[in-house]
Write a structure and sequence with these properties.
single chain; alpha/beta; Rossmann fold; seven-stranded mixed β-sheet; 39% helix; binds S-adenosylmethionine; rRNA processing
Length: 194
């Protein structure tokens, strides 16, 4: 499905997470046995939902690089990975360096404070409820930009809560893995009201 080099890089990322996990809890212990499906494949399924072109992207609260590092392996667009936890950010920097991902930049910062160019894509997985994610996306996205948010079972409740405060076009794609259940692809994000 992917190029040989990309498959090798995904294998390398898996080994790095396995090696670092006992020290800094990048993913839950139960998930380490199923890293490929639960984190790597779960992240890779966002690939066909990315907009065309090479505009810059950011993954917010990237953790061990899911989905940001996986999507950086699979694309050539610039990726900004925003992670406030210094140890996780150190992992991301090491992984990006070892995998030779020169188009990745790590920002050790709070999402609320980070300064980035206007983005074509924002991703965030397991970070916050949808209204909070929309506030981050509205600040960071270019006018035509797209947000991709994998969500669990609460997706409909989160959409209802978000629509009270935000105008947007939201498409729903069923997840193919056992991580997220629905991937939201959201554009035209505008705060509702005066
Ligand atoms: C539950 S983890 C999810 C990590 C990864 N996205 C995943 O799906 O495996 C949430 C991550 O977001 C980071 N985080 C939470 N709030 C943040 C903020 N305001 N700014 C930057 N990073 C934040 C945490 O340090 C943590 O690594």
């Amino acid at each position: 499905m992917f190029h040989v080099k990309q498959n090798d890089q995904l294998d390398q990322l898996q080994r790095l997470v396995e090696r670092w996990n006992p020290r800094i809890n990048l993913v839950s212990r139960a998930d380490v046995a199923d890293l490929r499906q639960r984190h790597i494949e779960d992240s890779a399924q966002l690939l066909p939902l990315l907009p065309a072109g090479d505009g810059p992207a950011a993954d917010l609260g990237s953790g061990a690089g899911f989905p940001g590092l996986v999507l950086a392996i699979l694309t050539t667009r610039p990726w900004h990975l925003v992670e406030v936890d210094r140890r996780k950010a150190a992992f991301l920097a090491t992984a990006a360096g070892e995998l030779g991902l020169d188009h990745v930049r790590i920002h050790v910062a709070r999402i609320e404070d980070v300064v980035l160019p206007p983005l074509a894509v924002v991703t965030a997985r397991a970070l916050a409820p949808l209204p909070e994610l929309l506030a981050h996306a509205a600040r960071l996205l270019a006018p035509e930009g797209v947000a991709l948010f994998p969500k669990g079972r609460s997706v409909q409740d989160e959409l209802t809560a978000a629509r009270a405060g935000w105008h947007m076009t939201a498409e729903e794609f069923p997840s193919r893995t056992n991580g997220a259940s629905t991937i939201l692809r959201i554009s035209g994000i505008r705060r509702a009201g005066p």
